[in-house]
Fold this protein.
Amino acid sequence: MGKAYYCDYCNRAFKDEVETRKKHISSVQHATNRTSHYNMFKDPETILTEESSKTPCKRYMNKGDCAFGSGCRFSHYTPSMIWELQQLVAMKNSKVSAVQPRDGWPNSEDIIKEYFENVIDPSGTEDLNHPVWSTTSGLVDNPYLPPSLQPIMSERTMNCNFSKWG
């Protein structure tokens, strides 16, 4: 049994021979599948320029489907979808949105400044005898818990007998 060639665009495998591969790659179905795959990754500007130059597909607008699918030469975008694309492109192109945050959103420069100003106190005056995370009240007083499941406290780590761990 020879090696099989798998085409990710067409989701099919066939015998890996040069002639078979060339025939598949030059087929209309493969070209359509490859084009529809790369259409998913287009920029909003490109989509907007392409779709606004097309006339709306009457069948798609009336019935909700088109026999040609993504290969249709008419636009399958509704006016509201075109408007959303225009807003997205305008927001992406505007330099103001990068400098000024949206209403209610913090500015990234302020967050970074606050992070570096609020440095942890190096004097070590924090209380280290409290658990780092909360545990269930029933587990705190259980004497049969292995050390790995017991709440971490500084006094337990200092007085720990590692030979019992096994």
User: Anything to note?
Assistant: The beta strands are 4-7, 12-15. The radius of gyration is 31 Å.
